[in-house]
Amino acid sequence: MPELPEVEVVRAGLASAVTGARIEGVEVFDERSIARHDGDAAAFEAALLGRSFGVPARRGKFLWIPLEPEQGELTTDALLTPGADRALLAHLGMSGQVLVREPGAAADRHTRIRLLIDQPQHGALEIRFADQRLFGGLAVRPLVVGEGGGAVPDQAAHIALDPLEPGFDASAVARRLRLRRQGVKAALLDQQLVSGIGNIYADEALWRSRLHYATPGQRLTQARATALLADVRDVLERALAEGGTSFDAQYVNVNGQSGYFEHSLNAYGRGGQPCRRCGATMVREAWMNRGSTRCPRCQRRPRGLAAGLA
Helix, strand or coil for residue 55? Predict the structure, then answer.
């Protein structure tokens, strides 16, 4: 599933294409891709047609584009100024893609929704939402005040700040992490503690920190927990600089191009290969209905912790 870097790559790619654009047409080809919207395809189209997009935003794995209020329309909450009180929320799920195309461009496989827009600088464009597995989708959702005081779609209101946001307080998150009895990897994947991290970047950050995934948060010192979050941030920034991680054709930017951070991975997907740090053979172990990859020498299981615990 796409994580923070992959979603941020899409957000950045959309920014110049959609900011200030007027929505001239909306076509829903598969209503399963608007399951998160309150209403049918006609309601979805009516909520967008004639509106203008603001600057795309993101928190963790959530991506949205604010909808500028119609002339004479007022927001319902002064905290949500300067304008929008609704947004087009995009959830990529496992295989969702948001693609920018010239009008009349060759069809993209699994296109579920198409928006026709007119952008002041670029003219007419198409925004296509393609999704093979149908776990993602688009929805027009109200904006509410989220953690840190910013405006977020209501379906993302429970999401914590992510490590790349200006308001992220690593010391405070480290203190909360140290209250947990669960393993550090499970904690990192809890989007209410810190958002944007999935299986790939959790494995990478734990490898950098030389921590076993099952190490209880309570066993970390404040310094160790803060250092882990610094490693998380560094991994995310490096992945973002390389366009994210693309293991197959599902993870692409708005132009349909793949990222290449998979070539820089030190842990995830490297089971059976030598550790880049010590040379020991990396192991992939079953963990919470998925897998976790670690170095058995650099990331030893904590003393007194039984195998199989998270």
Answer: coil
Write the pLDDT tens digit of every residue in 163-220.
999 999 999 999 999 999 999 999 999 999 999 999 999 999 999 999 999 999 999 9
Task: Write down the catalytic residue from 109, 181, 290, 303.
Answer: 290
In angstroms, the Cα distances linking 281 to 35, 135, 186, 273, 297 are: 44, 35, 24, 5, 9
Catalytic residue among 58, 61, 141, 270: 61
Reply yes or no on whether 208 is catalytic: no
245 has pLDDT over 80: no
- What is the reported pLDDT for 304? 78
Higher pLDDT, 40 or 255: 40
Nearest to 236 by CA among 11, 1, 6: 6
Mean pLDDT to the nearest integer, 252-257: 60
pTM listed for this prediction: 0.87
CA 122 to chain centre: 27
Distance separating alpha carbons of residues 67 and 294, to the nearest angstrom: 44
Which residues on adjacent β-strands are paired with residue 27?
114
Q: How many CA atoms lie within 13 A of 102 on its CB side?
A: 2
| Burial of 251 (C-beta count, 10 Å sphere; 0-12/13-18/19+) | buried
pLDDT value of position 95: 86
pLDDT at 260 over 50: no
Is 302 designated active site? no
